């Protein structure tokens, strides 16, 4: 997989020691940690420094990749990472956070199932004196101050997707009169709102004329996107051409599948995914598909960077960077393999 470049905006400059020196300094420490949760823990490395990575929807491929990246980086640094799948359960997020605090872990990273729990989890970690990092979905405390964050810039991602969709739309010479746009994703998740709003704005800016946008709220799963898009398609059977994008690959591929199941030909679908790990399956199988392109994002690199930032902050006793933002790039059937995309 081609490594991504990272840009960092910091509240306080953080001095980094080399990974080798860090690993050496921790190697002599004893473990002495309590067993991890039985719900999908994965411990790597040795030493008394334990970082807990609490993930929503840990069975989705992006988050599986993220966990793998975290484990690999932890092994390199000689620290211990405990990865827990929270599913979509905010109560579990709170209880797992409490469990981590109770055993006095060194750092906590969270992909929250619901951003509404931000004030609660941030305050708990702060009261315990444990560094806290929000991964993928930004979190704010009761005063509206953002927790340190590692992930992607949602608006920039949406802009890339919308720009590509507009390019494909113009190349196809479609018109607004016979085209509609399906914008699919979780409507109460800030990163999804940013991505879809960014895509809509970029498409409108780049297209010769902008078709109507139909927004479909989902839980960000393939199944929910497929089912809800199916109802919209049934109500719009006179539409000839469809542009599809969404919050993630699950949303986009689910909607594209619904269109194809309804008898819409791939030539009449311009789908631009976000993630590429599902979008590329049709390309790998050399299938004629409505999935025309995707913005490639790497869960591996986000997980790796989250552990690296947290471990360095623990080692140096310094503040975490305010933001660690990953670069992304567009792929399609012609270059996804060369770019290192792994289809799942």
UniProtKB/TrEMBL annotation:
One protein family per Pfam: Peripla_BP_4
Q: Where in the cell is it found?
A: Cell envelope
Matches recorded under PROSITE patterns: PROKAR_LIPOPROTEIN, TAT
Instruction: Provide a Gene Ontology MF annotation, just one.
Output: carbohydrate binding
Can you name a GO cellular component term? outer membrane-bounded periplasmic space
Q: Which InterPro entries match?
A: AraF (IPR026266), Bact_Solute-Bind_Prot2 (IPR050555), Peripla_BP_I (IPR028082), SBP_2_dom (IPR025997), TAT_signal (IPR006311)
Gene Ontology process terms (BP): L-arabinose transmembrane transport
User: Which superkingdom?
Assistant: Bacteria
Which coarse location class describes where this protein primarily resides? other
Q: Which family does it belong to?
A: Belongs to the bacterial solute-binding protein 2 family.
Q: What is this protein called?
A: L-arabinose transport system substrate-binding protein
The organism encoding this protein is Xylanimonas ulmi
């Amino acid at each position: 997989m081609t490594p991504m470049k990272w840009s960092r905006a910091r509240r306080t400059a953080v001095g980094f020691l080399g990974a080798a020196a860090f690993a050496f300094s921790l190697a002599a420490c004893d473990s002495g940690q309590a067993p991890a949760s039985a719900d999908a823990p994965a411990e790597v490395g040795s030493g008394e420094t334990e970082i807990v990575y609490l993930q929503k929807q840990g069975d989705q491929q992006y988050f599986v990749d993220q966990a793998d990246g975290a484990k690999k980086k932890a092994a390199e640094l000689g620290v211990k990472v405990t990865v827990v799948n929270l599913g979509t359960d905010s109560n579990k997020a709170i209880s797992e956070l409490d469990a981590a605090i109770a055993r006095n872990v060194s750092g906590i990273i969270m992909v929250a199932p619901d951003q509404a729990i931000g004030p609660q989890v941030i305050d708990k970690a702060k009261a315990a004196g444990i560094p806290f990092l929000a991964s993928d979905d930004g979190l704010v405390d009761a005063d509206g101050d953002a927790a340190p964050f590692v992930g992607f810039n949602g608006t920039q991602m949406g802009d890339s997707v919308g720009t590509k969709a507009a390019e494909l739309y113009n190349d196809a010479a479609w018109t607004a009169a016979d085209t509609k746009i399906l914008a699919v994703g979780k409507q109460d998740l800030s990163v999804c709102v940013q991505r879809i709003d960014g895509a809509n704005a970029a498409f409108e800016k780049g297209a010769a004329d902008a078709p109507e946008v139909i927004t479909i709220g989902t839980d960000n799963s393939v199944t929910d996107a497929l089912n809800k898009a199916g109802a919209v398609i049934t109500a719009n059977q006179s539409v000839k051409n469809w542009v599809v994008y969404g919050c993630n690959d699950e949303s986009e591929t689910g909607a594209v599948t619904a269109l194809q199941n309804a008898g819409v030909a791939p030539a009449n679908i311009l789908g631009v995914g976000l993630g590429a790990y599902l979008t590329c399956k049709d390309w790998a199988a050399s299938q004629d598909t409505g999935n025309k392109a995707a913005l490639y994002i790497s869960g591996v690199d986000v997980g790796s960077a989250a552990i690296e930032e947290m471990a360095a902050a623990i080692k140096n006793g310094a503040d975490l960077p305010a933001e660690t933002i990953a670069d992304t790039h567009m792929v399609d059937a012609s270059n996804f393999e060369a770019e290192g995309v792994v289809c799942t």
